[in-house]
Write a structure and sequence with these properties.
Length: 489
């Protein structure tokens, strides 16, 4: 066991919520929040959305966050203005003991000691997405997986919009589902990104279309092992019925195993053609085409010639999005239009600029080893790789094999710098940097025309940055500084 923060399998809330707790949740969520005391854990975007919703339903609300009071001052002021109490600093058991319901934000483990104590006394502890689904009436497309969730969620939303459907796109993508419910559920379809953290506390979550993109090692600072992480992901399908649709990556063995026990109609992308022909529906990828089959017959061929995202992993993302959108009612012409129009999302293999023949790419969202592997596979030229941050107790050793023959030099930074250097130094030269600007300058100094500098960190950003987007923005600023310097030189 590598970290004191690691959990035991028995600590994970992956079992159904028990009957007595379910009864209490039902009493609260069947439009009966008025007069109840709700404690929300986490003062981020999701926590504030839950607090607003519960307050609008007549509940007494307190938001607890163990973070720094100064950093949370603005968010706390917003809550105070709404009549919501806040408790900033170390969690106190008494805050939770008197609650009728506790709602945890995705970044908060339900296995914190005060929450476990409250749960043991019969206080229901659930997540935002579980609360939301008790009020949800809009049919949902839910997308999960280790990598590619936001890209596919966004793509499915665009495909449905181009088909003339009114769509809500949100969830873990940044607009919480509970906020959509408070605003009146005015869409025909909700396309929702769902993380494993959200699924940990999901009991009744029931998407009409569910998509699992891939499962690679990640978040082992929160789960005891990869099997527990995969089990959390598999909860996406637990409430699906034969009338629902599930989309699986046939080339991922962990995802294929999930399909074996799924009750819904199963569609597959990737994998071998023979396997896909036996499925109820499939999307077979080539470099330039998606061949979409339903019921064993060729339904349509979709050209990827105009699809602008790099790499096989993004062709997989396109295939998954096509199947999910078609299952949700999109038409083929709209799917084609959306694929050609989609320019990608920031911080995901995003081209930043070229300086003296060296291309710079921001892949700050690559917070695990599998994402780095996928990014490097898109380059045929030598790469100077920038990586580091806060690791998640994952196995970084495979980076050596991934980097060998592809990476010209690695520039490491952040809390994981020493660990990364020990892994990579036997196969590539390694430079350690004390800031993003220093890292980008070192990478540029060692690059030649025709080569690429790639920020693909393999780690979370929380040692130096609020989130991966801030890290990517800092990288872009450093590149812009080099552009100005070189143009003036």
């Amino acid at each position: 066991m590598k970290s004191a923060r690691r959990l035991h399998a028995a600590d994970l809330t992956t079992q159904p919520i028990n009957e007595s707790t379910n009864q209490r949740i039902n009493e609260l969520t069947n439009m009966q929040l008025e007069g109840k005391h709700i404690v929300v854990v986490g003062l981020g975007v999701t926590g504030r959305a839950v607090a607003r919703f519960a307050k609008s339903r007549g509940a007494s609300v307190c938001v607890a966050d163990s973070g720094d009071a100064g950093a949370l001052a603005e968010a706390a002021a917003e809550m105070t203005a709404l009549g919501v109490k806040t408790q900033i600093g170390p969690h106190r058991t008494e805050i939770f003991a008197g609650a009728d319901l506790i709602v945890v934000s995705p970044g908060v483990s339900e296995n914190l000691a005060p929450l476990r104590t409250a749960a043991a006394s019969g206080v229901p502890v659930i997540g935002e997405i579980e609360l939301a689904c008790r009020f949800m009436t809009t049919p949902m497309v839910a997308v999960s997986g280790t990598n590619g969730k936001t890209t596919v969620t966004s793509l499915v939303g665009e495909m449905l919009r181009h088909s003339g459907r009114s769509v809500f796109v949100g969830g873990n993508i940044g607009d919480p589902l509970i906020g959509y419910i408070q605003r009146g559920q005015d869409a025909e379809i909700a396309v929702v990104e769902v993380s494993s953290f959200q699924l940990d506390t999901a009991d009744r979550f029931h998407p009409k279309v569910a998509v699992m993109l891939n499962v690679a090692e990640d978040h082992l600072d929160r789960y005891p092992d990869s099997a527990a992480y995969a089990a959390s992901k598999a909860r996406l399908f637990r409430n699906q019925e034969p009338a629902d649709t599930a989309v699986f990556n046939a080339s991922d063995p962990v995802v294929r195993a999930m399909a074996e026990s799924c009750a819904a109609r199963r569609l597959f992308f990737g994998g071998q053609e023979a396997l896909l022909k036996e499925a109820a529906g499939s999307a077979l990828m080539t470099d330039e085409t998606l061949v979409v089959r339903m019921g064993g017959a060729v339904a349509e061929e979709i050209s990827l010639a105009g699809f602008r995202l790099r790499g096989r992993h993004n062709r997989e993302n396109a295939a998954a999005a096509v199947l999910a959108a078609l299952a949700a009612g999109a038409d083929f012409d709209a799917v084609r239009t959306a694929l050609d129009a989609f320019a990608g999302l920031p911080h995901r293999l995003q081209w930043v600029g070229t300086v003296k023949g060296v291309d710079f790419y921001d892949d700050s969202k690559a917070t695990n080893v599998d994402a780095v592997k996928r990014a490097l596979e898109t380059f045929s030229s030598p790469v100077v790789l920038l990586l580091g941050g806060r690791d998640k107790d994952t196995d970084l050793s495979s980076l050596a094999g991934i980097a060998a023959g592809r990476v010209k030099r690695a520039v490491v930074m952040g809390e994981a710098a020493a660990r990364l250097a020990s892994v990579l130094s036997p196969v590539v030269p390694v430079t350690e940097a004390a800031s993003m600007a220093e890292a980008v300058n070192a990478a540029f100094a060692d690059s030649r025309p025709g080569e690429a500098v790639l920020l693909s960190p393999a780690c979370a950003s929380f040692d130096w940055y609020e989130n991966y987007a801030r890290r990517g923005e800092d990288f872009c600023r450093a590149v812009e500084a080099i552009e100005r310097r070189e143009s003036n030189g």
